[in-house]
Amino acid sequence: MGKSAEEITVVMGVIGADVHAIGNKILEYAFREAGFNVVNLGVMVSQIEFVEAALETAADAILVSSLYGHGEMDCQGLRELCIEMGLGEILLYVGGNLVIGKTSFPEVEAKFKKMGFNRVYPPGTLPETAIRDLLGDLANG
Amino acid sequence: MANNVLLVDIGSTYTKVVAVDLDYPKILGTASAPTTAATNIREGLFEALKCLTEKTGTTSYAESYGSSSAAGGLKMVAIGLVPALTAKAGKMAALGAGAKVLKTFAYELAASEVDEIQQLEPDIILLCGGTDGGNKEVILRNAEHLAGLAGEFSVVVAGNKAAAKEAAEILEASGKQVRLCENVMPQYNCLNVEPAQAAIRNLFLEKIVQAKGLSEVQRFIGNPLLPTPRAVLQGAELLARGTAHQAGLGDLLVVDVGGATTDVYSMAEGAPASGVVLRGLQEPYAKRTVEGDLGLSHSARSTLEAVGRKKIAALTQLSEEEVEENLLLLEKEFSVSFSKEKEAVRNCLTYFAVKLATERHAGKIETIYTPCGPSFIQTGKDLTGIKTIIGTGGPLIYSSDPASLLAAARRSQEAALKPEGGSLYLDRSYIFAGMGLLSQKYPEEALALLKGELEWLG
Fold first, then answer.
1. I want to staple A69 with a disulfide (CB 3.0 to 4.6 A). Which of A100, B280, B325, B458 is the partner?
2. Mind listing the pLDDT tens digit for each residue in A122-135?
3. What is the SS3 assignment for A100?
4. Smallest CA–CA distance from B186 into chain A, residue
């Protein structure tokens, strides 16, 4: 059996110089309603802030949002930083408008998975999808 | 004479005493004498009391309260997990308790760091790490490391609630004096420093007072001794918040320039202005910082180095050699009598001690240019709205122009969020610590006296 939502801590936030706050609030609300312990870092969050918050709170997953199209640059090296800081294979999810232009989603997904993200979500994904995936990933982990 | 109260501060160099008549209320007199830590602290205290009696004619007091920073003050090290989170929270808790924080450590301690702690010989170690529900391993590992320290050490454990008890047991099993209390950071970025500070105060009374040869003074005074900076902080908080029957002055800043350090206290929430994003640890309303490299005697040289010798020479219109000569005089002894040149160097260094210490204390604002336009990020406290700035400490008190030196606490071009304006006051009779002590039982009288004693500078 995996953990229940009440036993799971997630760190979330909007990475880089991105100030889009609304989706972040909705995501926080949905995860709290589902029973998770949520550490919401808000907007304009640096990689090191994500990792330090996850380390101090012993988080089970880091949920990264990026809405302004610079996600690829902002997210590079996050997995390596986790490994360096002793978080190793902590679950990393990313979602939003991750790249500018007409790159197809399978390409985007492949790119971010190669960077070490466990789940990659296209625009318009509902919080329930990520919640279901997280419970499943932790049960199988 | 039933309503006379005696307030004693055993400082590192001077023992200061204040006699207060609670009926008016009014200050009957103040006196001081060199602290006699090398022989018996009681001698210096009795000398100061003799001077006080000569001034006031009073020998009987209904009550006495005391503080001490003698014999090195309350020396502490703080240990946490992440430097910007629980390690910083631990440091802020210790500073607010009135401690001199020798060093702050983060993550699992290295063997060399454990050796370093052994050599630093702190009076108290504050062990933190992990939010409640967060990381447990590191605080437990660090408890094991600290258990290996030789000698008598006192430890306050204020980390993850699920691991703190076990950490305390590991330390107790090795013969350490341990106090277990609530987490300094129960949730991410939320400070809870008061329980750790209460535990530090208790340990200070039970262990440290005796270890530092203050037991006799403690018995003479009859009430619990406080670390001096804690007494100053309580005085500042009283003045800002007011009491049940009197309004306080609201948000304020206190700058205490000393021989070895410059201490800054801010009493303000310091919340960001609208449209500004706050990053990093939320800081406490009553915040104290200590700058160990800024001071006018022991630290005069490092203050000069922080500013630059050429700049000091240019500003004082002295040659670099003359600056050096006067610096040597300042380092040797802080005395009240001065040559014109020494006064110029001292004033110049005091100005920069105030300027740099308040810059480091205040929050910072940074503009980030994003694809959506400029954004403003604040770290620390926004003190721009503070209307009251109070200076204290010898270099300010004995200056011929304290107003222009203290004005360095105001914001000029810096990114630091210092007060934009605000009135300047001087605590000329150095009664902040005394009124902090008095406020423990007589807040109304202490506040009235504080308000009456502060000298308006402009």
1. A100
2. 999 999 999 999 99
3. coil
4. A57
pLDDT at B277: 86
CA distance B153 to A33: 46
Q: How far apart are CA A135 and CA A35, in angstroms?
A: 12
Q: Are residues B40 and B94 in the same domain?
A: no
The pTM for the full model equals: 0.88
Instruction: Say if B317 falls within a structural domain.
Output: no
Please list, in sequence order, all residues whose beta carbon lies within 8 angstroms of the beta carbon of residue B351, skipping any fewer than 6 positions away: B404, B405, B408
Q: Give the CATH fold of the A6-17+29-69+76-97 domain.
A: Rossmann fold (3.40.50)
What's residue B334's pLDDT? 53
Residue B37 shares a structural domain with residue B180: no
CB contact under 8 A, B277 and A53: no
Nearest C-alpha neighbor of A74 from the set A127, A20, A129, A26: A20
> Tens of pLDDT along B65-108?
999 988 778 999 999 999 999 999 999 999 999 999 999 999 99
* Residues B82, A44: C-beta atoms closer than 8 Å: no
Chain B interface, best mutation among A6, A48, A57, A74, by max B CB count within 10 A: A57
Q: Among partner residues B188, B279, B375, which is closest to A56 by beta-carbon distance?
A: B188
* Interval B282-311: pLDDT, tens: 899 999 999 989 999 888 999 999 999 999
Is residue B277 in a domain?
Answer: yes
Cβ–Cβ of B136/A58 closer than 8 Å?
A: yes
Catalytic annotation present for A70: no
CA B131 to each of CA B79, B192, B330, B388: distance values in angstroms, whole numbers, following the listed order: 14, 11, 46, 36
pLDDT at residue B212 greater than cutoff 90 = no
B336 pLDDT tier (thresholds 50, 70, 90): low
- For chain A, the structural domain boundaries read 6-17+29-69+76-97
Neighbour-count burial for B432-458, b at 16+ CB within 10 Å, e otherwise: bbbbbbbbeebbbbbbbbbbebbeebe
**B158 or B375, higher pLDDT:** B158
Chain B positions touching chain A (beta carbons under 8 Å):
81-82, 84-86, 130-131, 133-136, 185, 187-188, 277, 279, 368-372, 375, 377
Select the residue from A44, A49, A56 to test the B interface by mutation, using most B Cβ atoms within 10 A.
A56
What domain range includes position B40?
4-70
Helix or strand run (H / E) with residue A135: helix A127-140
Q: Which residue in A39, A44, A70 is closest to B188 by CB distance?
A: A39
Put simply, the answer to whether B131 touches A57 (Cβ < 8 Å) is: yes
